[in-house]
Amino acid sequence: MTTRAVVLGGGGPVGIAWELGLAAGLESAGVLLRDADLFVGTSAGSAVGAQLAFGNAPDDILAQYASLDDANHPSQKPVDLAAMFQQFMQLFTSTEPPEKVRADLGAFALAADTISEDEWLDTFRRMPGMDGEAWPERRFVCTAVDAATGAFVAWDRDAGAPLDRAVASSCAVPGIYPPVTSNGRRYVDGGIRSSTNGDLARGYDIVLVVSVGMPGIDAVPAIAEAMKRQRDGELALLREGGSRVELIESDAASLQAFGLNLMDFTRREQVAEAGRRQGLAEAGRLREFWAGVAAGTP
Asked: What would the DSSP string read from start to end of 26-69?
């Protein structure tokens, strides 16, 4: 039996809208991501992956997401952007051990003045299927990082965390949203380990990796090159393990729809439409791949 995995990367509220639109466009052309055997979600991808793992149709999820009032999205307190940028530069350029660098970013997150943890959790409890602690039957994994130690965590139904807390921790961007408590420890965005964490899909026959673009990232070559190197390494690892792998990256039209701020919830409708259009465009090359038809098969 052919096994399939979909890896959904991080990208804030804009990334959620784009990935939902992408999934809806693909599905309308016969490529159903919700049929995957494994869903790996990081940050925005965790919110989308959880709902797809429940079997919810992308169009239905998208309709609910689009219907939210701007007031229902958590506000952001003023962010020290210079300090935040310095922390993220360290994440991608430091020669210190990765866990140490992530722990430093975790300390920054713990000290930040953000909305309350309860306000943040309420955001996820309003999402379809996530108003309780139950995990989907299909295998769903979402990523986070221990704010104190920098240790990487891959939450699944056996890890002992309620679903809403697991997803909220995966989306807790340091300095913008609060670390999330689970089992007495606090956790932040899994994207500080990797924007995709695609290596978690190793061993699956077919792996589709969805990577949300970061507007303006090319202006910071050190970060852009480090992120690309990391993602390419994950793709190579999957292929070395015998997986057939395809990558979807945000195209130029989608990046234009994103604007300059991936946290801008108000852009969700235009971003979702850009994702839908790209999904329709990508479906032709992905239909046989997702169906498990071997390359070159008549």
From this structure: HHHTT--GGG-SEEEE-THHHHHHHHHHTT--HHHHHHHHHHS-
